[in-house]
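pasting input
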Amino acid sequence: MEIAMSVPSTPAPYTPTDRTVPTRSADRAAYDRETVHSILDASYLCHLGFVRDGAPVVLPTLYGRVGEHLYVHGSTGSRPLRMAGQQDLGLPVCLTVTHVDGLVLAKSAFHHSMNYRSVVVHGIAHQVTDPDEKRMALDALVDHVVPGRAADSRPANTKELAATAVLRLDLAEVSAKARTGGPNDDPEDQDLPYWSGVVPVAPAHGAPIPADDLAPDIELPDYLRTL
Amino acid sequence: MEIAMSVPSTPAPYTPTDRTVPTRSADRAAYDRETVHSILDASYLCHLGFVRDGAPVVLPTLYGRVGEHLYVHGSTGSRPLRMAGQQDLGLPVCLTVTHVDGLVLAKSAFHHSMNYRSVVVHGIAHQVTDPDEKRMALDALVDHVVPGRAADSRPANTKELAATAVLRLDLAEVSAKARTGGPNDDPEDQDLPYWSGVVPVAPAHGAPIPADDLAPDIELPDYLRTL
């Protein structure tokens, strides 16, 4: 029995809730942490939704992940960060990350689709007040965009830290959703004379452009060569 | 005076409102229709926010633009489309489109940023009930992803049209926001030994992958060769 108990256990998946079970294509939904983390770690841009005066607001922003926490940051003057700070209970948010992987072209307009991977996180965002957690979160944000970069730039000073607000959102009410593969045309459309298939899509990085004031003796770091 | 009056007038920009004037970096905001349309037309994926039981929900979805209207579609069973249909007054939404154009790496962690173009549309989405407008909107959605594709696929039949709900959102309360250029480091950081500059980012299309059941005599159409 001891041997069996020493085998690392798979962490429990996120518990599905009414909000994280889709009404459509529920078979495309996943709740395991590995899938969710891999989708979150492959991007750095999220769309953060919150409610202001009863109406929805959706803003693009960068994020970082540390274990089961997501962090977003902004000026202490920005609207959602101010709102989260004013409300002791935190700010209800929905944070969504989407990768487009392909355009799915079917013979019928109806079956056109998109290959994608997305994660939707529901929860309450709280302002981070602990200075050590704030520093750690800002490093995580920079490293989430370019791994290795936080250690290769000047850390925030006291004034910059004071001007920056950080929100933490715990990964608890979370789902992933993905579509892969080719078009699913109806059998009766098989002989229509239209091309069908998938056009792959992926973000590409161009050659890094040095800043105007960059000293010529500073070479491109390895973590950017391999990006 | 007649000559002056015959000069085509620039269409009036969108009127800024409390919701479309950002609290931060207001100098990055734009309200002219040309800028807004060009950002919307360069993508096909939006993040649609709405409020459900008082909490925000943000879902990725495709969209199309026809003049000053945006269209999104989905199953008649999907949550936001059902909500918009149930409410005679329509569904308050926020529709956001974001392009990432570059990673801005400054010498200080604080001045790290992102080059981007985004559009945020606030408004009330209404279900499209007119069959002609619905057909036109679905064509626009397909052509927005791949220009020329709607005419090169089988149009939706009556059953498919009945299963598809379309929402219209008018472009009225709209703003664009963009950041371009290199990092804005503080002068006192100029001599720090860190690489600084911009890593360009853009979506790239891979070689189209034919569907498993595609007849070998159907060639790749020109509109996909030039995508």
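fyi The mean pLDDT of chain A is 92.
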